[in-house]
Amino acid sequence: xxxxxxxxxxxxxxxxxxxxxxxxxxxxxxxxxxxxxxxxxxxxxxxxxxxxxxxxxxxxxxxxxxxxxxxxxxxxxxxxxxxxxxxxxxxxxxxxxxxxxxxxxxxxxxxxxxxxxxxxxxxxxxxxxxxxxxxxxxxxxxxxxxxxxxxxxxxxxxxxxxxxxxxxxxxxxxxxxxxxxxxxxxxxxxxxxxxxxxxxxxxxxxxxxxxxxxxxxxxxxxxxxxxxxxxxxxxxxxx
Length: 239
Hints:
mainly alpha, Four Helix Bundle (Hemerythrin (Met), subunit A), 2 domains
């Protein structure tokens, strides 16, 4: 789908490159502002009080908007979810951490490691690299956000850390070096020749389902009503 070229911000940037045009616009804005100041300075009596009241009201309104937005960003609310191995628990969530949950949802959902790896198909090395990508990406995201200030309740970052330390890290610690050792010793061999191939794939499939459970939890915390639909193939409406 192509965007409307008339709304292209590049036209505005090109407009600003002409110094004469910019100078004329600046003069016009300055003259308008000067005329307004003149009108205000000439106001007396009840009109002056009315103008002052309107100015105070406008400043108060702007302050309320800033306060409400900041409150909406940092105020914590509770969301109850069913998370694997936790049963039902209450999460403390706010706008900032909904954004973090959305990023975690997208990152885990789009990795190879959350997609099925049929027997004798796909690459275990790519799957392990994908898991490592989830690990490093999640860790870097958590470094950029401050911990939720909540006296109780589980938070998004707690769930993310548990996914890393209780699910992904143990799997990588067990299988990364085993596969690398085989690759180093048998440079020309196929992954299917690896004696631990089947066992690794079975554990990978089990891990995949657990990571998907975390992914769906991140989706719900991000505010997605039906996160499972992201995992389903799109239906062909032409049929």
